[in-house]
Specification:
It contains 26 helices and twelve strands. The strands form three sheets. The protein has a six-stranded mixed β-sheet with strand order 2-1-5-7-6-12. The protein has a four-stranded antiparallel β-sheet with strand order 9-8-11-10, with helices on one face. Strands 3-4 form a two-stranded antiparallel sheet. 52% of the residues lie in helices and 8% in strands. Strand 6 and strand 7 (395-399) form a beta hairpin. The longest helix is centred in the first third of the chain and has 21 residues, at 22-42. It has 582 residues and is of the alpha/beta class.
Length: 582
Protein backbone atom coordinates (compact mmCIF):
# COMPACT_ATOMS: atom_id res chain seq x y z
CA UNK A 1 0.00 0.00 0.00
CA UNK A 2 2.92 2.32 0.84
CA UNK A 3 4.37 1.83 -2.66
CA UNK A 4 1.12 2.70 -4.41
CA UNK A 5 0.70 5.83 -2.23
CA UNK A 6 4.20 7.03 -3.00
CA UNK A 7 3.70 6.43 -6.71
CA UNK A 8 0.47 8.48 -6.74
CA UNK A 9 2.17 11.32 -4.83
CA UNK A 10 5.03 11.27 -7.32
CA UNK A 11 2.57 11.46 -10.20
CA UNK A 12 0.78 14.44 -8.67
CA UNK A 13 4.01 16.32 -8.00
CA UNK A 14 5.40 15.75 -11.46
CA UNK A 15 2.11 16.39 -13.24
CA UNK A 16 2.27 20.00 -12.10
CA UNK A 17 4.93 20.69 -14.73
CA UNK A 18 4.89 17.58 -16.86
CA UNK A 19 6.39 19.17 -19.95
CA UNK A 20 9.50 20.12 -17.98
CA UNK A 21 9.85 16.79 -16.24
CA UNK A 22 8.99 14.34 -19.06
CA UNK A 23 12.49 12.87 -18.98
CA UNK A 24 12.20 12.40 -15.21
CA UNK A 25 8.91 10.52 -15.64
CA UNK A 26 10.62 8.14 -18.03
CA UNK A 27 13.55 7.66 -15.65
CA UNK A 28 11.23 6.91 -12.77
CA UNK A 29 9.28 4.35 -14.82
CA UNK A 30 12.49 2.77 -16.08
CA UNK A 31 13.83 2.36 -12.55
CA UNK A 32 10.59 0.71 -11.49
CA UNK A 33 10.78 -1.68 -14.43
CA UNK A 34 14.36 -2.60 -13.55
CA UNK A 35 13.41 -3.28 -9.96
CA UNK A 36 10.55 -5.45 -11.20
CA UNK A 37 12.91 -7.37 -13.47
CA UNK A 38 15.32 -7.92 -10.61
CA UNK A 39 12.53 -9.23 -8.43
CA UNK A 40 11.47 -11.66 -11.16
CA UNK A 41 15.00 -12.97 -11.47
CA UNK A 42 15.46 -13.59 -7.72
CA UNK A 43 11.99 -14.96 -6.97
CA UNK A 44 11.46 -18.71 -6.75
CA UNK A 45 7.82 -19.49 -7.58
CA UNK A 46 5.99 -22.38 -6.02
CA UNK A 47 6.02 -25.54 -8.11
CA UNK A 48 2.26 -25.41 -8.51
CA UNK A 49 2.22 -21.78 -9.71
CA UNK A 50 2.01 -20.99 -13.44
CA UNK A 51 5.13 -19.78 -15.22
CA UNK A 52 5.84 -16.07 -14.84
CA UNK A 53 5.86 -13.79 -17.86
CA UNK A 54 9.20 -13.25 -19.54
CA UNK A 55 11.28 -10.52 -17.90
CA UNK A 56 11.43 -7.21 -19.70
CA UNK A 57 14.67 -5.60 -20.77
CA UNK A 58 14.24 -1.83 -20.85
CA UNK A 59 16.78 0.64 -22.12
CA UNK A 60 19.61 1.85 -19.91
CA UNK A 61 18.45 3.56 -16.72
CA UNK A 62 18.80 7.35 -16.53
CA UNK A 63 20.22 9.18 -13.53
CA UNK A 64 20.47 12.84 -12.55
CA UNK A 65 21.49 14.97 -9.58
CA UNK A 66 18.04 15.01 -8.04
CA UNK A 67 18.16 11.33 -7.16
CA UNK A 68 14.52 10.92 -8.17
CA UNK A 69 15.27 7.70 -10.01
CA UNK A 70 16.56 6.16 -6.82
CA UNK A 71 13.41 7.17 -5.01
CA UNK A 72 11.30 5.55 -7.72
CA UNK A 73 13.40 2.41 -7.53
CA UNK A 74 12.86 2.24 -3.81
CA UNK A 75 9.17 2.77 -4.29
CA UNK A 76 8.95 -0.01 -6.84
CA UNK A 77 10.94 -2.30 -4.57
CA UNK A 78 8.59 -1.57 -1.71
CA UNK A 79 5.62 -2.38 -3.97
CA UNK A 80 7.09 -5.74 -4.79
CA UNK A 81 8.21 -6.86 -1.35
CA UNK A 82 4.68 -7.30 -0.13
CA UNK A 83 4.22 -10.33 -2.36
CA UNK A 84 7.55 -12.06 -1.88
CA UNK A 85 6.18 -14.01 1.05
CA UNK A 86 3.89 -15.70 -1.38
CA UNK A 87 7.02 -16.63 -3.34
CA UNK A 88 5.50 -15.28 -6.59
CA UNK A 89 6.07 -11.71 -7.85
CA UNK A 90 2.90 -9.74 -8.69
CA UNK A 91 2.06 -8.17 -12.05
CA UNK A 92 3.73 -4.88 -12.93
CA UNK A 93 2.08 -2.05 -10.98
CA UNK A 94 -0.38 0.15 -12.85
CA UNK A 95 1.52 3.15 -11.49
CA UNK A 96 4.38 2.35 -13.87
CA UNK A 97 2.01 2.34 -16.85
CA UNK A 98 0.54 5.60 -15.58
CA UNK A 99 3.96 7.23 -15.37
CA UNK A 100 4.71 6.28 -18.96
CA UNK A 101 1.28 7.34 -20.15
CA UNK A 102 1.69 10.75 -18.57
CA UNK A 103 5.08 11.16 -20.23
CA UNK A 104 3.73 9.88 -23.52
CA UNK A 105 1.09 12.62 -23.66
CA UNK A 106 3.50 15.48 -23.04
CA UNK A 107 4.41 16.00 -26.66
CA UNK A 108 0.71 16.64 -27.25
CA UNK A 109 0.43 19.07 -24.34
CA UNK A 110 3.57 21.17 -24.67
CA UNK A 111 6.17 19.77 -27.02
CA UNK A 112 8.31 22.92 -26.58
CA UNK A 113 11.51 21.08 -25.85
CA UNK A 114 13.28 18.66 -28.16
CA UNK A 115 14.37 16.73 -25.09
CA UNK A 116 10.79 16.43 -23.95
CA UNK A 117 9.69 15.22 -27.37
CA UNK A 118 12.40 12.59 -27.41
CA UNK A 119 11.51 11.49 -23.90
CA UNK A 120 7.84 11.34 -24.84
CA UNK A 121 8.66 9.09 -27.81
CA UNK A 122 10.75 6.91 -25.51
CA UNK A 123 7.84 6.72 -23.07
CA UNK A 124 5.48 5.64 -25.85
CA UNK A 125 7.97 3.00 -27.02
CA UNK A 126 8.37 1.61 -23.49
CA UNK A 127 4.64 1.65 -22.85
CA UNK A 128 3.98 -0.27 -26.09
CA UNK A 129 6.62 -2.84 -25.12
CA UNK A 130 5.25 -3.32 -21.61
CA UNK A 131 1.60 -3.41 -22.69
CA UNK A 132 2.32 -5.88 -25.48
CA UNK A 133 4.29 -8.18 -23.20
CA UNK A 134 1.64 -8.13 -20.50
CA UNK A 135 -1.46 -8.01 -22.71
CA UNK A 136 -2.42 -4.63 -21.28
CA UNK A 137 -4.85 -3.70 -24.04
CA UNK A 138 -6.16 -0.62 -22.21
CA UNK A 139 -2.86 1.23 -22.48
CA UNK A 140 -2.47 0.33 -26.13
CA UNK A 141 -5.95 1.73 -26.72
CA UNK A 142 -4.89 4.93 -24.96
CA UNK A 143 -1.85 5.29 -27.19
CA UNK A 144 -3.90 4.53 -30.30
CA UNK A 145 -6.24 7.34 -29.25
CA UNK A 146 -3.36 9.79 -29.73
CA UNK A 147 -2.66 8.22 -33.17
CA UNK A 148 0.33 6.13 -32.20
CA UNK A 149 0.65 3.81 -35.20
CA UNK A 150 2.91 1.28 -33.47
CA UNK A 151 0.45 0.94 -30.59
CA UNK A 152 -2.43 0.46 -33.03
CA UNK A 153 -0.53 -2.34 -34.75
CA UNK A 154 0.47 -3.97 -31.44
CA UNK A 155 -3.17 -3.90 -30.32
CA UNK A 156 -4.29 -5.31 -33.67
CA UNK A 157 -1.89 -8.21 -33.19
CA UNK A 158 -3.04 -8.83 -29.62
CA UNK A 159 -6.72 -8.84 -30.53
CA UNK A 160 -6.28 -10.89 -33.71
CA UNK A 161 -7.58 -10.23 -37.20
CA UNK A 162 -11.18 -11.22 -36.45
CA UNK A 163 -11.57 -9.26 -33.20
CA UNK A 164 -9.61 -6.14 -34.13
CA UNK A 165 -11.24 -3.25 -35.92
CA UNK A 166 -10.18 -2.07 -39.36
CA UNK A 167 -9.48 1.30 -37.75
CA UNK A 168 -6.42 -0.11 -36.02
CA UNK A 169 -4.73 -1.56 -39.08
CA UNK A 170 -5.59 1.53 -41.10
CA UNK A 171 -4.12 3.82 -38.43
CA UNK A 172 -0.98 1.71 -38.28
CA UNK A 173 -0.67 1.66 -42.06
CA UNK A 174 -1.10 5.43 -42.31
CA UNK A 175 1.57 5.74 -39.63
CA UNK A 176 4.04 3.87 -41.88
CA UNK A 177 4.13 0.62 -39.92
CA UNK A 178 5.32 -1.65 -42.73
CA UNK A 179 3.76 -4.80 -41.31
CA UNK A 180 0.40 -3.03 -41.10
CA UNK A 181 0.75 -1.70 -44.62
CA UNK A 182 1.26 -5.25 -45.89
CA UNK A 183 -1.77 -6.48 -43.93
CA UNK A 184 -3.82 -3.53 -45.16
CA UNK A 185 -2.78 -4.26 -48.76
CA UNK A 186 -3.72 -7.92 -48.57
CA UNK A 187 -7.08 -7.14 -46.95
CA UNK A 188 -8.35 -5.04 -49.85
CA UNK A 189 -9.82 -6.41 -53.06
CA UNK A 190 -9.11 -3.18 -54.92
CA UNK A 191 -6.11 -3.86 -57.21
CA UNK A 192 -4.91 -0.26 -57.27
CA UNK A 193 -5.05 0.08 -53.48
CA UNK A 194 -3.32 -3.26 -52.98
CA UNK A 195 -0.44 -2.31 -55.25
CA UNK A 196 -0.18 1.14 -53.63
CA UNK A 197 0.16 -0.23 -50.09
CA UNK A 198 2.46 -3.05 -51.15
CA UNK A 199 4.75 -0.45 -52.70
CA UNK A 200 4.68 1.71 -49.55
CA UNK A 201 5.59 -1.25 -47.35
CA UNK A 202 8.21 -2.55 -49.77
CA UNK A 203 9.90 0.84 -50.05
CA UNK A 204 10.48 0.78 -46.30
CA UNK A 205 12.68 -2.29 -46.82
CA UNK A 206 10.19 -4.74 -45.33
CA UNK A 207 11.21 -8.02 -46.95
CA UNK A 208 7.81 -9.83 -46.79
CA UNK A 209 6.22 -6.83 -48.53
CA UNK A 210 8.95 -6.80 -51.17
CA UNK A 211 8.37 -10.50 -51.85
CA UNK A 212 4.58 -9.96 -51.94
CA UNK A 213 4.97 -7.06 -54.37
CA UNK A 214 7.15 -9.20 -56.64
CA UNK A 215 4.47 -11.92 -56.56
CA UNK A 216 1.85 -9.30 -57.42
CA UNK A 217 3.78 -8.26 -60.52
CA UNK A 218 4.44 -11.87 -61.55
CA UNK A 219 0.73 -12.65 -61.16
CA UNK A 220 -0.04 -9.77 -63.53
CA UNK A 221 2.58 -10.85 -66.09
CA UNK A 222 4.93 -7.97 -65.34
CA UNK A 223 8.24 -9.74 -64.74
CA UNK A 224 10.22 -6.59 -65.52
CA UNK A 225 8.63 -4.90 -62.46
CA UNK A 226 8.99 -8.00 -60.28
CA UNK A 227 12.68 -8.49 -61.02
CA UNK A 228 14.18 -5.61 -58.95
CA UNK A 229 12.17 -6.63 -55.89
CA UNK A 230 13.15 -10.29 -56.25
CA UNK A 231 16.74 -9.17 -56.57
CA UNK A 232 16.44 -7.52 -53.13
CA UNK A 233 14.90 -10.57 -51.44
CA UNK A 234 16.60 -13.45 -53.25
CA UNK A 235 19.45 -13.68 -50.76
CA UNK A 236 17.09 -13.84 -47.77
CA UNK A 237 14.13 -15.87 -49.01
CA UNK A 238 14.36 -19.21 -50.80
CA UNK A 239 11.05 -18.66 -52.61
CA UNK A 240 12.36 -15.37 -53.99
CA UNK A 241 15.67 -16.98 -54.92
CA UNK A 242 13.80 -19.61 -56.91
CA UNK A 243 11.60 -17.07 -58.70
CA UNK A 244 14.55 -14.81 -59.43
CA UNK A 245 16.42 -17.77 -60.89
CA UNK A 246 13.42 -18.52 -63.10
CA UNK A 247 13.38 -14.97 -64.42
CA UNK A 248 17.10 -15.02 -65.12
CA UNK A 249 16.71 -18.31 -66.96
CA UNK A 250 13.98 -16.87 -69.17
CA UNK A 251 16.37 -14.03 -69.98
CA UNK A 252 18.99 -16.64 -71.00
CA UNK A 253 21.25 -15.63 -68.09
CA UNK A 254 21.49 -19.32 -67.31
CA UNK A 255 24.64 -19.47 -65.19
CA UNK A 256 23.35 -16.92 -62.67
CA UNK A 257 19.95 -18.60 -62.84
CA UNK A 258 21.46 -21.94 -61.88
CA UNK A 259 23.10 -20.34 -58.85
CA UNK A 260 19.86 -18.96 -57.44
CA UNK A 261 17.88 -22.13 -58.21
CA UNK A 262 20.53 -24.25 -56.52
CA UNK A 263 20.55 -21.88 -53.55
CA UNK A 264 16.80 -22.32 -53.12
CA UNK A 265 17.18 -26.09 -53.59
CA UNK A 266 19.79 -26.30 -50.81
CA UNK A 267 17.41 -24.46 -48.46
CA UNK A 268 14.73 -27.10 -49.07
CA UNK A 269 12.57 -25.56 -51.81
CA UNK A 270 10.95 -28.64 -53.36
CA UNK A 271 10.29 -27.28 -56.85
CA UNK A 272 13.77 -25.73 -56.96
CA UNK A 273 15.21 -29.14 -56.09
CA UNK A 274 13.27 -30.70 -58.94
CA UNK A 275 14.40 -28.01 -61.39
CA UNK A 276 18.01 -28.21 -60.26
CA UNK A 277 17.85 -31.92 -60.96
CA UNK A 278 16.40 -31.56 -64.46
CA UNK A 279 18.96 -28.87 -65.34
CA UNK A 280 21.65 -31.44 -64.59
CA UNK A 281 19.96 -34.17 -66.65
CA UNK A 282 18.50 -32.24 -69.60
CA UNK A 283 19.74 -29.49 -71.89
CA UNK A 284 17.74 -27.22 -74.21
CA UNK A 285 18.13 -28.19 -77.85
CA UNK A 286 16.67 -27.59 -81.30
CA UNK A 287 14.52 -30.09 -83.24
CA UNK A 288 17.24 -30.67 -85.85
CA UNK A 289 19.71 -31.70 -83.13
CA UNK A 290 17.49 -34.28 -81.46
CA UNK A 291 19.19 -37.71 -81.73
CA UNK A 292 17.51 -40.92 -82.80
CA UNK A 293 15.81 -43.04 -80.19
CA UNK A 294 15.62 -46.82 -79.92
CA UNK A 295 12.16 -48.09 -79.10
CA UNK A 296 11.61 -51.51 -77.56
CA UNK A 297 9.85 -53.16 -80.51
CA UNK A 298 6.86 -52.69 -82.78
CA UNK A 299 4.88 -55.26 -80.87
CA UNK A 300 5.56 -53.52 -77.58
CA UNK A 301 5.16 -49.98 -78.96
CA UNK A 302 2.05 -49.67 -81.10
CA UNK A 303 2.10 -46.03 -80.08
CA UNK A 304 5.50 -44.33 -79.90
CA UNK A 305 4.95 -41.17 -77.91
CA UNK A 306 7.42 -38.33 -77.50
CA UNK A 307 7.18 -35.91 -74.56
CA UNK A 308 8.20 -32.36 -75.48
CA UNK A 309 8.87 -29.44 -73.12
CA UNK A 310 9.03 -25.80 -74.08
CA UNK A 311 10.70 -24.11 -71.05
CA UNK A 312 12.43 -24.69 -67.73
CA UNK A 313 9.09 -24.98 -65.94
CA UNK A 314 7.65 -27.38 -68.48
CA UNK A 315 10.70 -29.66 -68.61
CA UNK A 316 10.36 -30.09 -64.85
CA UNK A 317 6.68 -30.96 -65.29
CA UNK A 318 7.36 -33.25 -68.25
CA UNK A 319 10.04 -35.07 -66.27
CA UNK A 320 7.59 -35.65 -63.41
CA UNK A 321 4.91 -36.91 -65.81
CA UNK A 322 7.41 -39.29 -67.40
CA UNK A 323 8.42 -40.69 -64.00
CA UNK A 324 4.78 -41.12 -63.00
CA UNK A 325 4.11 -43.02 -66.21
CA UNK A 326 7.08 -45.32 -65.65
CA UNK A 327 5.75 -46.14 -62.18
CA UNK A 328 2.13 -46.69 -63.25
CA UNK A 329 1.54 -50.42 -63.06
CA UNK A 330 -2.00 -50.04 -64.43
CA UNK A 331 -0.64 -49.21 -67.90
CA UNK A 332 2.40 -51.49 -67.82
CA UNK A 333 0.80 -54.16 -70.05
CA UNK A 334 -0.42 -51.75 -72.73
CA UNK A 335 1.65 -51.71 -75.96
CA UNK A 336 2.38 -47.99 -75.83
CA UNK A 337 5.78 -46.43 -75.18
CA UNK A 338 6.77 -42.96 -74.04
CA UNK A 339 10.28 -41.61 -74.64
CA UNK A 340 12.06 -39.36 -72.11
CA UNK A 341 11.23 -35.66 -72.55
CA UNK A 342 12.96 -33.43 -75.06
CA UNK A 343 13.67 -29.89 -73.89
CA UNK A 344 13.34 -27.46 -76.78
CA UNK A 345 14.93 -24.02 -76.77
CA UNK A 346 12.73 -21.03 -75.96
CA UNK A 347 10.34 -19.93 -78.71
CA UNK A 348 10.87 -23.03 -80.88
CA UNK A 349 7.17 -23.84 -80.57
CA UNK A 350 4.53 -21.16 -81.01
CA UNK A 351 2.00 -22.17 -78.37
CA UNK A 352 -1.05 -20.32 -77.14
CA UNK A 353 -3.82 -21.03 -74.63
CA UNK A 354 -6.33 -19.86 -77.25
CA UNK A 355 -4.56 -21.04 -80.38
CA UNK A 356 -6.14 -19.48 -83.46
CA UNK A 357 -9.22 -18.62 -81.44
CA UNK A 358 -10.15 -22.28 -80.87
CA UNK A 359 -10.39 -21.90 -77.08
CA UNK A 360 -7.87 -24.66 -76.42
CA UNK A 361 -4.15 -24.88 -75.83
CA UNK A 362 -2.29 -25.74 -79.03
CA UNK A 363 0.96 -25.05 -80.89
CA UNK A 364 2.25 -24.77 -84.40
CA UNK A 365 3.41 -28.38 -84.78
CA UNK A 366 5.59 -27.90 -87.86
CA UNK A 367 8.83 -27.55 -85.83
CA UNK A 368 8.20 -31.06 -84.47
CA UNK A 369 8.59 -32.61 -87.94
CA UNK A 370 12.37 -33.32 -87.62
CA UNK A 371 11.80 -35.03 -84.26
CA UNK A 372 8.97 -37.18 -85.63
CA UNK A 373 11.17 -38.26 -88.54
CA UNK A 374 14.31 -38.92 -86.51
CA UNK A 375 12.52 -40.90 -83.82
CA UNK A 376 9.72 -42.55 -85.81
CA UNK A 377 7.16 -40.95 -83.48
CA UNK A 378 3.47 -41.71 -83.87
CA UNK A 379 2.17 -39.33 -81.17
CA UNK A 380 3.48 -36.40 -79.16
CA UNK A 381 2.74 -34.82 -75.78
CA UNK A 382 3.56 -31.11 -75.63
CA UNK A 383 3.78 -29.55 -72.16
CA UNK A 384 3.26 -25.80 -72.34
CA UNK A 385 2.89 -23.04 -69.74
CA UNK A 386 -0.89 -22.75 -69.52
CA UNK A 387 -4.09 -23.71 -71.30
CA UNK A 388 -6.84 -26.31 -71.39
CA UNK A 389 -5.67 -29.89 -71.88
CA UNK A 390 -6.83 -31.51 -75.10
CA UNK A 391 -5.95 -33.91 -77.91
CA UNK A 392 -5.77 -32.87 -81.54
CA UNK A 393 -5.20 -35.91 -83.75
CA UNK A 394 -1.85 -37.33 -82.62
CA UNK A 395 -0.82 -34.42 -80.38
CA UNK A 396 -1.72 -34.02 -76.71
CA UNK A 397 -1.41 -30.60 -75.08
CA UNK A 398 -0.92 -30.26 -71.33
CA UNK A 399 0.07 -27.35 -69.14
CA UNK A 400 2.22 -27.24 -66.00
CA UNK A 401 -0.81 -27.47 -63.70
CA UNK A 402 -2.17 -30.68 -65.24
CA UNK A 403 -1.87 -33.74 -63.04
CA UNK A 404 -0.64 -37.10 -64.26
CA UNK A 405 -4.24 -38.33 -64.12
CA UNK A 406 -5.08 -35.79 -66.85
CA UNK A 407 -2.34 -37.25 -69.04
CA UNK A 408 -3.74 -40.78 -68.59
CA UNK A 409 -7.21 -39.54 -69.50
CA UNK A 410 -5.83 -37.91 -72.65
CA UNK A 411 -3.76 -41.01 -73.51
CA UNK A 412 -7.04 -42.90 -73.78
CA UNK A 413 -8.20 -40.29 -76.31
CA UNK A 414 -5.15 -41.21 -78.42
CA UNK A 415 -6.79 -44.64 -78.77
CA UNK A 416 -10.29 -43.41 -79.54
CA UNK A 417 -11.94 -43.38 -76.10
CA UNK A 418 -14.53 -40.65 -75.62
CA UNK A 419 -15.34 -38.55 -72.56
CA UNK A 420 -18.00 -39.88 -70.22
CA UNK A 421 -18.84 -36.48 -68.79
CA UNK A 422 -21.39 -34.37 -70.67
CA UNK A 423 -20.00 -33.04 -73.94
CA UNK A 424 -20.83 -29.57 -75.16
CA UNK A 425 -23.95 -29.30 -77.30
CA UNK A 426 -21.97 -28.99 -80.54
CA UNK A 427 -19.73 -31.94 -79.71
CA UNK A 428 -22.72 -34.05 -78.66
CA UNK A 429 -24.47 -33.31 -81.96
CA UNK A 430 -21.36 -34.43 -83.82
CA UNK A 431 -20.63 -37.61 -81.91
CA UNK A 432 -24.00 -38.69 -80.50
CA UNK A 433 -25.71 -39.43 -83.79
CA UNK A 434 -25.99 -42.57 -85.91
CA UNK A 435 -23.70 -41.07 -88.52
CA UNK A 436 -21.25 -39.81 -85.93
CA UNK A 437 -20.93 -43.14 -84.17
CA UNK A 438 -20.58 -44.95 -87.50
CA UNK A 439 -17.68 -42.68 -88.49
CA UNK A 440 -16.06 -42.49 -85.08
CA UNK A 441 -16.84 -45.57 -83.00
CA UNK A 442 -15.38 -45.07 -79.49
CA UNK A 443 -14.78 -48.32 -77.61
CA UNK A 444 -16.52 -47.07 -74.47
CA UNK A 445 -19.80 -45.63 -75.80
CA UNK A 446 -23.07 -46.68 -77.38
CA UNK A 447 -26.57 -45.21 -77.29
CA UNK A 448 -30.22 -46.01 -77.74
CA UNK A 449 -31.14 -47.25 -81.21
CA UNK A 450 -34.47 -47.94 -82.91
CA UNK A 451 -34.72 -51.40 -81.38
CA UNK A 452 -31.54 -52.03 -79.37
CA UNK A 453 -28.22 -50.39 -78.64
CA UNK A 454 -26.49 -48.47 -81.43
CA UNK A 455 -24.02 -49.39 -82.64
CA UNK A 456 -24.79 -52.93 -81.59
CA UNK A 457 -21.31 -54.01 -82.69
CA UNK A 458 -19.84 -52.03 -79.80
CA UNK A 459 -21.98 -53.89 -77.27
CA UNK A 460 -21.14 -57.20 -78.95
CA UNK A 461 -17.46 -56.28 -78.57
CA UNK A 462 -17.94 -55.60 -74.87
CA UNK A 463 -19.58 -58.98 -74.40
CA UNK A 464 -16.93 -60.85 -76.39
CA UNK A 465 -14.00 -59.15 -74.66
CA UNK A 466 -15.51 -59.63 -71.23
CA UNK A 467 -16.10 -63.31 -71.93
CA UNK A 468 -12.59 -63.88 -73.30
CA UNK A 469 -10.96 -62.06 -70.40
CA UNK A 470 -13.28 -63.56 -67.77
CA UNK A 471 -14.43 -60.09 -66.80
CA UNK A 472 -17.86 -58.96 -65.62
CA UNK A 473 -19.89 -56.77 -67.98
CA UNK A 474 -22.18 -54.25 -66.33
CA UNK A 475 -23.56 -51.69 -68.73
CA UNK A 476 -24.29 -48.29 -67.16
CA UNK A 477 -25.50 -44.94 -68.39
CA UNK A 478 -23.02 -42.29 -69.51
CA UNK A 479 -23.42 -38.50 -69.40
CA UNK A 480 -21.71 -38.01 -72.76
CA UNK A 481 -24.76 -37.15 -74.86
CA UNK A 482 -26.86 -35.47 -72.18
CA UNK A 483 -26.62 -32.01 -73.79
CA UNK A 484 -28.93 -33.19 -76.62
CA UNK A 485 -31.09 -35.45 -74.41
CA UNK A 486 -29.74 -38.69 -75.88
CA UNK A 487 -29.21 -41.61 -73.52
CA UNK A 488 -25.79 -43.16 -73.93
CA UNK A 489 -24.16 -46.16 -72.30
CA UNK A 490 -20.72 -47.28 -71.14
CA UNK A 491 -19.37 -50.71 -70.12
CA UNK A 492 -19.25 -49.79 -66.41
CA UNK A 493 -21.56 -48.66 -63.65
CA UNK A 494 -18.91 -46.73 -61.74
CA UNK A 495 -17.34 -43.32 -62.37
CA UNK A 496 -14.28 -44.06 -64.46
CA UNK A 497 -11.20 -42.05 -65.41
CA UNK A 498 -13.00 -40.97 -68.61
CA UNK A 499 -15.61 -39.10 -66.56
CA UNK A 500 -13.43 -37.81 -63.72
CA UNK A 501 -9.73 -38.20 -64.44
CA UNK A 502 -8.83 -37.91 -60.78
CA UNK A 503 -11.00 -40.89 -59.83
CA UNK A 504 -8.15 -43.10 -60.98
CA UNK A 505 -10.60 -45.88 -61.83
CA UNK A 506 -9.66 -47.80 -64.99
CA UNK A 507 -11.81 -50.95 -65.05
CA UNK A 508 -10.12 -54.11 -66.29
CA UNK A 509 -12.53 -54.24 -69.22
CA UNK A 510 -11.38 -50.76 -70.28
CA UNK A 511 -7.76 -51.90 -70.20
CA UNK A 512 -8.64 -54.86 -72.43
CA UNK A 513 -10.53 -52.60 -74.85
CA UNK A 514 -7.60 -50.16 -74.78
CA UNK A 515 -5.20 -52.94 -75.73
CA UNK A 516 -7.44 -53.92 -78.65
CA UNK A 517 -7.56 -50.31 -79.80
CA UNK A 518 -3.77 -50.03 -79.76
CA UNK A 519 -3.53 -53.12 -81.99
CA UNK A 520 -5.79 -51.45 -84.57
CA UNK A 521 -4.13 -48.50 -86.36
CA UNK A 522 -7.50 -47.55 -87.85
CA UNK A 523 -8.68 -46.65 -84.35
CA UNK A 524 -5.95 -44.04 -83.90
CA UNK A 525 -5.06 -40.61 -85.30
CA UNK A 526 -1.26 -40.28 -85.65
CA UNK A 527 0.72 -37.04 -85.59
CA UNK A 528 1.42 -37.45 -89.31
CA UNK A 529 -2.13 -36.29 -90.04
CA UNK A 530 -1.61 -33.21 -87.88
CA UNK A 531 1.64 -32.41 -89.70
CA UNK A 532 0.00 -32.92 -93.11
CA UNK A 533 -2.70 -30.42 -92.21
CA UNK A 534 -0.22 -27.89 -90.83
CA UNK A 535 2.03 -27.90 -93.91
CA UNK A 536 -0.94 -27.99 -96.27
CA UNK A 537 -2.49 -24.90 -94.66
CA UNK A 538 0.87 -23.14 -94.77
CA UNK A 539 1.16 -23.61 -98.52
CA UNK A 540 3.98 -26.16 -98.43
CA UNK A 541 2.68 -28.92 -100.72
CA UNK A 542 5.90 -30.96 -100.87
CA UNK A 543 6.16 -31.35 -97.09
CA UNK A 544 2.39 -31.84 -96.83
CA UNK A 545 2.59 -34.67 -99.38
CA UNK A 546 5.28 -36.45 -97.39
CA UNK A 547 3.18 -36.42 -94.26
CA UNK A 548 0.05 -37.47 -96.12
CA UNK A 549 2.00 -40.45 -97.43
CA UNK A 550 3.06 -41.29 -93.88
CA UNK A 551 -0.55 -41.08 -92.79
CA UNK A 552 -1.68 -43.31 -95.65
CA UNK A 553 0.99 -45.82 -94.72
CA UNK A 554 -0.29 -45.84 -91.17
CA UNK A 555 -3.86 -46.24 -92.44
CA UNK A 556 -2.88 -49.16 -94.67
CA UNK A 557 -1.65 -51.09 -91.66
CA UNK A 558 -5.24 -51.39 -90.42
CA UNK A 559 -8.82 -50.97 -91.57
CA UNK A 560 -10.29 -47.50 -91.92
CA UNK A 561 -13.68 -46.45 -93.18
CA UNK A 562 -13.76 -45.28 -96.79
CA UNK A 563 -13.52 -41.56 -97.16
CA UNK A 564 -12.23 -40.97 -93.61
CA UNK A 565 -8.81 -39.78 -94.77
CA UNK A 566 -10.45 -37.10 -96.95
CA UNK A 567 -12.56 -35.99 -94.01
CA UNK A 568 -9.47 -35.84 -91.78
CA UNK A 569 -7.65 -33.74 -94.38
CA UNK A 570 -10.53 -31.27 -94.55
CA UNK A 571 -10.63 -30.42 -90.86
CA UNK A 572 -8.41 -30.41 -87.81
CA UNK A 573 -11.32 -31.32 -85.56
CA UNK A 574 -11.96 -35.01 -86.19
CA UNK A 575 -12.16 -37.94 -83.85
CA UNK A 576 -11.19 -36.78 -80.38
CA UNK A 577 -9.78 -33.44 -81.54
CA UNK A 578 -12.01 -31.39 -79.27
CA UNK A 579 -11.97 -33.76 -76.32
CA UNK A 580 -10.90 -31.50 -73.48
CA UNK A 581 -10.24 -31.83 -69.80
CA UNK A 582 -12.07 -29.08 -67.98
Amino acid sequence: MRGLTLAIIALLLIAGDSGRYTQQLVRNATSAIQAYDKQLLTAEPRSNEPDLPESLTPEQSFSDSTGSDIAASDTASTDLTSSTSANCPPPLKQSVYALLWLAAQNHEQSGTSQGSDNASEEAQRLLIMLASKNNAQYWLEQLASINNADAAWALYQLLGEEAASDRLVRLAALGNVAEAQLAFAMATENPEKREKWLIRAAEQGYMPAQAALADWYLLHAQPELAKPWLQKTAMQDMQSAFKYGRLLWDENNREDAKGFIQRAAKEGHKLAQQMASVIQRYSPTTPSNVPRYTWQSNTMCHQRIQLVATSLATIARADKLYKDYKNDERLSELPLCIAPPIWLENNVLDCNANFKGQGNLACNVKPLAPIVKARDVTHAIVVSEQGKANVQNGVMYLDISDAYSVMVHELAHFSGFIDEYALSRNAARRFCSSEGLNTFAPPNLTMDGAIAYHPQNTVNRWETTAKEEFLPLRVGTAKTCGAINVTSYKPSRVITFMEHHDSGVIPDLYLSLWQEQLANPAAQRPISMNLFQAFHKNGQPEEAGQWLAAYESHKASGEMNAGEAAADAATTNTGSNNDTEE
